[in-house]
Write a structure and sequence with these properties.
Blueprint (H helix, E strand, L loop, with lengths): L3 H6 L7 H12 L1 H4 L4 H8 L4 H9 L5 H14 L3 H12 L4 H19 L2 H13 L3 E5 L3 H14 L4 E4 L3 H7 L8 E6 L7 H11 L2 E6 L12 E4 L13 H17 L1 H19 L2
Parallel strand pairs: 1-2, 1-3, 3-4, 4-5
Helix pairs in contact: 4-5, 8-13, 9-13, 10-13, 13-14
Amino acid sequence: MTSFIDRIAEDSVKLTETERKIVDALVERRHETVFLSGPQLAERLSVHEAAATRLAQKLGYKGYPQLRAALQKEMVEGQDAAHRMRRSIELAGEKGYLQDLIASEIAALENLARTISQEEIDKTVDMIFEAKRVFLFGQGHAQSVLSFLQRRLDRFGMTTIGLSGRGRDIAERIVSLGAGDVVLGMAFRKQPEGYGPLMTHARAAGARTILISDLSGLSMEPRADLILAAPRGRSGSEFQTPTVPFAVVNAVLITMAGRHDKQAIGALEKLSEVFRHFEEK
């Protein structure tokens, strides 16, 4: 597939001053602009809303959403772990790795406060709490955060089902998935294998869906009913902290304890009693 840069470089493509301004923003500030919608980008650059669409069509895309999706895919695929770690080390400089890491974590958490609202956390909590069962899906690094969430939900008396493994392993566990259930997925950087079929099946079965992700989650298909998406670093080219998804999960758990305190705290009290039975000699 022809890349965005290759399309711009074609002799037949003649860009206006406004279109060049948009291209410069998409190339030089990609990590800031690539997740904006056409109207949002136009507002950011103080150009007409139709400018982004005209540029996309001139470059051979159906519209700006297709151009944006292509750029997101290029960005994700071009950022391997070695590149991101190398970039983080270079940025640390004389400041020292610990101080730079602390600054990066603070920046990531400040971004979290700007991108996910308490209202969205409340909606997530209510969806989970009202569910008959919570199916938890994630692969790679997401599994450690999901394992933490699943254990805490179990302690609150929720019925959880982990969707680990691939393909047929997941299919076997979602045969009974239906209305009243919730599928909570966690995915970072790119859409994981199994995500599409799972979300498609969940929608057909009448189950509700939640996705916790970085900004790449905004382009994952099928789109979840509720998306909690926040950047996990100062930019996609640097070390991607696990602090942000853990903070989102902890916000969900704390909100659940406060919003549904009678049931949640009651389940913890019951758990303490059960613990005592196992500890008796």
